[in-house]
Amino acid sequence: DAKTTQPTSMDCAEGRAANLPCNHSTISGNEYVYWYRQIHSQGPQYIIHGLKNNETNEMASLIITEDRKSSTLILPHATLRDTAVYYCIVAYNTDKLIFGTGTRLQVFP
Amino acid sequence: DTGVSQDPRHKITKRGQNVTFRCDPISEHNRLYWYRQTLGQGPEFLTYFQNEAQLEKSRLLSDRFSAERPKGSFSTLEIQRTEQGDSAMYLCASSFLAGYNEQFFGPGTRLTVL
Hints:
The structure holds two protein chains of two kinds. Chain A is an all-beta fold. Chain A is built from no helices and nine strands. A five-stranded mixed β-sheet of chain A has the order 1-9-8-3-4, with no helix packed on it. A four-stranded antiparallel β-sheet of chain A has the order 2-7-6-5, with no helix packed on it. Chain B has strands at about 5, 10-15, 20-25, 30-35, 45-50, 55, 65-70, 75-80, 90-95, 105, 110-114. Chain B is globular and about 40 Å long.
């Protein structure tokens, strides 16, 4: 599975959009991009995934560049409850998710 | 609550003792996964089952670790002769069918080995 690179930490003001980048320059053509988050003392929570096209659900939007070497997770209106560690994972499927150290997002009032 | 449940939530044991954790997946999920997470790190894959069959084990899963899912429903993870390095959060997840579906994680069992 391809390796991902994420910033260690980011801050975002409550109510603003949080844009979390992820680099995956060695991604293969049939590998998906998955995003999970982990709120303190809880298990990870699935957010969204995509292959080539941009995706949107009730939680977030996923923007994948045309060359698929990077992506951005967008939380359109961040709240304090979105403070968490966000993991970007590249995988063929979900048989074996390889988590990195993720991005610690701090949403402040 | 119909999510993934894990028991116990916390376990403190002395080095050399055996411990067993239980995971109850979401009903009808036929895939079940175990992960281990140490402080400041992301979860590390340990093993997964499809129904009662254990399909893959990480090399992190030493001979002291064993996992079972005897009837394709709940699963147990046993650690024999615990070591201080086994101190971690042990996470269980389940998913429906195979491959591309999201994994639903439980709250984890925090193990402290003294």
